[in-house]
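Checklist before submission:
- one chain only
- standard amino acids only
- sequence pasted in full

Submission:
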Amino acid sequence: MTSTAQIYGYVRASSLSPSGLLDLQTSGGTTTAGPAAHPRFFSGFLGEAEPAAAALLGVANVAQARYWRPSLAALRDPVVTCNGDRLRFESFSGCCGVYARLDVLDEGMDGLALDRGTTNVDVNNDLRLALTRVRGGDPLKLEVGPEGLEATTFDGTVVERKVPLPARWLRGFAEVQAVTSGYDLRAELGAADAARFLRGLPNAPRAVQWLVPAGRTLRLAATPGPGAICIAGPQRLKELLPLLRFGGKLRVHGPNVARGAQPVASVWQLDLPGMRLVLTLSPEITRGFSGEGAVLSALAGDDVIDDAETVAALLAFDAHIEPSVLAERTGLTVERVRAALTQLGTAGRVGYDHADAGYFHRELPYDAERAAKQNPRLRAARDLLDAGAVSWDGDIATVKVEAHVQRVRWRGEGALSCTCLWYAKYQGGRGPCKHILAADAYRRGERGVMDGADAEADSGSGEAVAVAR
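Returned file contents:
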C-alpha cells in the first residue's frame, strides 16, 4: 500500500486549560494568502462548552479509529477549515469507511474569524481526556492557531509527529462527496427517539441492514426497497450516542434505492445547539470509500481539468458554492461546473454539505492530487492505452488484457458496459472498470490525464476495499 509521510509540526501541544481555554494548535495548510506553517483562523467563544467538547471529541475519535481490522493503528489529526461564518472539523477513519465532520455555525460561536483556510489541528491524548471532563453550559474559549505570534517568528516546533498517510485514505475525501452529493433526506428523528433506535439496533458488526421510516423512528426491513436506508456496522454510529442528550434532530440522507438493491452509503446528521455533527458510513464495513470509483469518470477528460482550473480560480474558502453562479461567472454549463467540482474534490478541494445542499471549499494540507492520480484503476487504464490494447469497431471496443480480451459496448448517452467480472459484479455501482476507462478515453482521443499520471507503483490496499481487478 503506497503511503506518504505527513509530518505534523506544532508550536506546542493543543490543550484545554482549567479556565476553559481550548487552545488548538495548527500545522501547515493554506490560507487566503497562500501556504502557511501555522495559520491562525479563529479567536472567540463557542456557545456551549459540553456539546462542543463532546462533538469535537467525536471527530477526533473517528480519526483514530479503525472499524475494519481494528488491530491496526490509525493516528491522524483532524482537519479544520474556516469558511468565515463557520468552522468545519473533518476526519476519516483509518479504514476509510467512516467520514466525520463537525460544523460549528455562526450562531454557535462568538468571536473573530482571523482568516479563511484549511489546516491540521493537534488533538493529542491529553486533550482528548480533558474534553471528556467538560461539563456545564458555560461558553468555551477557543483559539485556532498560535495566539499572538506570527508563524515567521518561530524558530522551530516543539511537537512533531510523522504519520504515514495511505493514498487510499486521501482518495476517501474525494469519493465521499462524489458518492453522497445526490442523496436526499430519508428520515428525521427526535433526540429521544434516535437514542432508543440506536441502542436497539441488533449487534451485527459486519451485517448490512436495511431500515424504513416507521412513525417517529426507524425499523428494520427484510429487504431493500423504495425509501429504505442502508446501515452496515451500526457500531460505527457510536459517536452520536453521547451527543443525543443535548437534544436536536437526527436526519438521515440516502439514495433512492430499488427493490433488491446493493448496499449503499448513508449520511447521519445530528443537529446540536449552534453546530452539526455528520457521520457518513460506507456501504459495508469491509468496504472503504477509497475504492468506490465514483470520481473516476470525472478524472478521465482533459476538458474537465481545464474547467476545474477555471472554477478553482473563483473559490475563496466559500461556505456554500453555488454551481449556477459559477456557471454564470465562467461561461460554462452547470453540468460542466459540477464535473469540475468533482475534479476539484479529487484533490480534497471541495466537500459537500447536505444541510445546505451544496458544496464548500477547503484545501487539504496533503498531496491529495498525487494520491488521486495513483488510483489503481486509472493507472491500469493508462497502461492498457500505452500498450495499444484498445481498439473500437462500431459500438464495441476490444480491450486485450494479457491472454484474454474484454468487450466494452457503447450504449449511447455516455453509457458503457463491459464483459469483465468487475462490471458483472457491481454493474457500475462502484465506478467504471479499467477497461471502460481505457476504452472511453481512447474513443474520445483524450489520453492526457492518464499519460500525465504519476507512474509510481501502488501494490494495493491489503484490504478488501480498494483495488479494482
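Reviewer check: The chain has a mean pLDDT of 84.
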